[in-house]
Structure formats: C-alpha cells, structure tokens
Amino acid sequence: GPVLKFNNVKFHYDSNREILKGIDFEVPAGKTIAVVGPSGAGKSTISRLIYRFYDVIEGSVEIDGQDVRDVTQKSLRTAVGMVPQDTVLFNDTIEYNIRYGRPDASDEEVREAARLAQISDFIESLPDGFNTQVGERGLKLSGGEKQRVAIARTILKSPPILILDEATSALDTQTEQEIQSALDAVAQDRTTLVIAHRLSTVVNADEIIVLRDGKIAERGNHEGLLAQD
Ligand code: ADP
Ligand code: ADP
Fold first, then answer.
1. pLDDT tens-digit series, residues 41-95
2. Which residue's CA lies nearest to atom 15 of ligand 1?
3. Bridge partners of 34?
4. Does ligand 1 come within 6 angstroms of the Cβ of 43?
5. Among 18, 19, 163, which residue has the most ligand 1 atoms within 8 Å of its CB, making it the best to mutate?
6. Contact 76/63 with Cβ under 8 angstroms?
7. Which ligand is nearest to the CA of 45?
8. 3-state DSSP of 96-143
9. ipTM of the complex
10. Which residue numbers delimit the ABC transporter domain (predicted)?
11. Closest ligand, as measured to the CA of 86
C-alpha cells in the first residue's frame, strides 16, 4: 500500500476559515509526489499535518497504513524527515545541529553531509557566527545558510519518508542547482513529498498535484500540466 496517504483531509487554523477542503492523495513507496500551487494555497499546512505540528479536523493522515495520531512522536520523527521553509537552529554548533536526529553518526558522515550541503567551512560555528574552534566571531548565518544546515541534517538522517517544503527557496540559483542534486540523491528511491511554488522545479516528480484555495485543482505529470498552461 501507499506509505503516505491523505484521506479527505479538512483543516482550519484558529479562525474558522477552511484551509484544506477535503484533500485526497497518496505517495506510493519510493515515489516522489509534488504539491505545487500559489502562495496561501495550503501547501505548507499539508507538511505540518504530516509532522503533527497540527492535527486534522476531519479525515486522516496515514503512514504505512497507520493514522499518524496513533504513532508515537518518536517513531514519527524517525520515519519522517523534513526540510522546512524557515529553519530554526539550536544555539549550539552547526555540527550539533547537523547531528540532531542522528547523534550516533560518525564524524566522516557528518563531514560528508556538510560537504554536500556546502557548509563545511562553518561546522564549528554557532548560528550567530561565533566560531567555537578559533574563538572568533564570524558572520551571522543567513537564511540560505540555515536552510543548508537543515539540508545537511536531512542528508545525514536519510529518513524513509522525506518532506521537502520549498527546501531550496532561500538559496541563490547556482547554489540551488548544486544542492538540489544532493537532495535528489537522497530522494532517490525514498518516499518523498516535495512542496514547491513553481512547476519548473518538480520535473522529476512521479505525480504533481496542483493545490488551489485548499482543493486539488489538477493532477498529472509535468508535461501534461505544462501542456494545459
Ligand atoms: P502555502 O504553503 O501554500 O503558501 P500555507 O499552508 O502556509 O500556504 O497557508 C495556507 C493559509 O493558511 C494561508 O492563508 C495562511 O495565511 C494561513 N495560515 C498559515 N499558517 C497559519 C496559522 N498558524 N494560523 C492561521 N492561519 C494560518
Ligand atoms: P523535536 O524532535 O524536538 O520534537 P521536531 O521533530 O518537532 O523537534 O521538529 C521538527 C524538526 O525541526 C526537527 O527534526 C528539527 O530538524 C527541527 N527543530 C525542531 N525544533 C527545533 C529547534 N528548537 N531548533 C532547531 N531545530 C529544531
């Protein structure tokens, strides 16, 4: 069966305005499904429901056939890795932040993840730029650098289910292309949900879901959806 499944999911935040109005989709094992759509459509809300930052109002989210409400936080966090749009880092070294989720990783594995995410130069630093090894203040990490730390963490963790929520949105074009290929390598053969703004960034998805105003407006593959544009 599918590894990740949304069954008629309805959701609203504190105000009663409905954000998701009955969403159905599934991600089969090892496949990549992309959710695209305009800002405010409800894309990130989908990722938050999987990670249980919030719970559905109606319907259900299932992982391996189990309602996420019946899964312990620990096994949910082990099964699912997420690169969020805005990364908040612990006020500890970048190395600590990369290891978060896999403290057992070897130094070599940490260095390799840092290399792929292009943050090798500052793994001894704190998010505010203080370098713990040389005891000097460097540059405060930018949004893009924090995003690369989250990417390194996820590469290291290599979870069975991967959620990439506009995971390279804070990066410049050149860095984005390089890091995207590192992420593609992690996503290969893994159950992956990609959230993106533009259709052009999800060429490799097995299926693309177009979300508009909390509903699935269209679904198909890249060529098919481009043809309708
Ligand atoms: P997208 O990722 O497609 O841009 P989101 O899922 O982030 O959309 O948001 C969908 C809608 O929900 C938006 O209208 C947004 O303003 C609203 N929203 C998002 N987070 C919250 C929140 N914590 N409380 C109330 N409304 C929210
Ligand atoms: P926790 O394991 O503390 O429950 P979550 O798993 O809920 O944290 O958070 C989702 C992801 O967001 C984590 O895997 C981690 O990557 C990141 N994260 C959560 N809280 C923090 C934090 N305070 N500082 C840095 N990163 C965090």
1. 999 999 999 999 999 999 999 999 999 999 999 999 999 999 988 888 999 999 9
2. 40
3. 194, 208
4. yes
5. 19
6. yes
7. 1
8. HHHHCCCCCCCHHHHHHHHHHCCCHHHCCECCCCEECCCCEECCCCCH
9. 0.74
10. 4-229
11. 2
